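Sequence only, no structure available. Ideas?
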Amino acid sequence: MLPSITGQYLARYQRLGAGDPDFALLPATGAQRRFLLVRSLDPAGHADIVPMFFAFPRGTVDPARLRAAANHLAARHPVLRSRPCVVRGTPVLRPGPADVPLDHVDGAPGESAEDALRRTLGDWAAQGPPLRLFLAHDASYPEEELLAVVLDHTACDGQSLARIVGELGAAYRDRLGPDDLSPAEAAAELAAYRDAVLRQLDAEDRAASPRALAYWGERLRTVHEQAPLPGTRPIPAGPPSGAADWKAPAPVGGVPFPALLDACRAAATALYGTGPVPPIGYPWGGRPAGAAPVLGCFLNTVVFPADTRGAASPEATAAGWWDDLDRADTPFDEVVRAARAGGSAWSGRLDGLLTVDDARSRDPLRLGATTGREVHVGGRQVRAPFAVSATQGPELHLRMVWDRTVLTDDAAEDAFAALCRALPATAEPMP
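Reply:
I predicted one. Tokens follow.
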């Protein structure tokens, strides 16, 4: 049996540091390697980034104090001060000094703060620091300024965001900077991060067992992407992505994940018809057993075959999803290889994405005595034909964004309406 992709990567990484007790390069998880691969294949070299936006009363944010607090976080957490590189064909992270920039974003004449931030993030330099801060304001926010806390996706996953917000606020409150972390503490955090990633890679290697690969080969045998390639159609003036929102009081216990998958299936049917089965991806995962709860990117992309050729019962979707979760650690690249070995012509591109966020799990950013108001800045580039986010809390908030170079606005809006109609009956949508 051939070694797994992860096993081959581990062997190459270990050869890099063989015999060097001071070897400083850090291994990359499967998710990190996938983001780096997608970046390398992007004609413009765009990185996947994760921004959070907060509105603060104008004048309440102390930029020097905020930058010191962010550099304290980067000094503590290796992934926030490490940059990707390739050494002898092996993707790794190279730790460096904490260096988080804070840029003041000036809008062009007539440009809003949101537009200026959207433009700035569109020009994100992939080789820069993984954590960056931006402050912007304009006449549409006469009493406020917008703070963007932005991370390269190789440095964070959903479990990292709440901790980053909490620790950034605590370091700001306590006026901490990078020099407030002792060398011993920094060394311990570095060792804990390396240990967590090696545990993750070991788990990914074990998850690529022959039985798991045979399962995915059969499960995805009929999958084939349906959406045209990005850039297929010219777009009218405006942002590169479109968006639609829907809110309703959440049912007790929230909407079950399989019901959200079925809703995405309805959207895919509206967009792509009833031909080959479109692949819908969703992030899943967490820190490996025994690992410290380090910041980083430990998610995997699990693939849901959104069979549009017939009505699937909610029970069948749920049963298939539970079976998938038993093999959710199988790395995405192994799953693609297994599907193709099973007879699929799937290239590995996804026709849609689904993410779910628990609004109760993250407090807003608090800087000193002032709590920021989290806001949304849309219109940024999206990495899939369409992506659905479901935020569950006291209310259910569905948001769909789409790549306007792939889908027309009318088709995407019809698909979003089909998605909302397919959800289990809840209260009427809120205005």
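The longest strand covers residues 49-57.
Hope that gets you unstuck.
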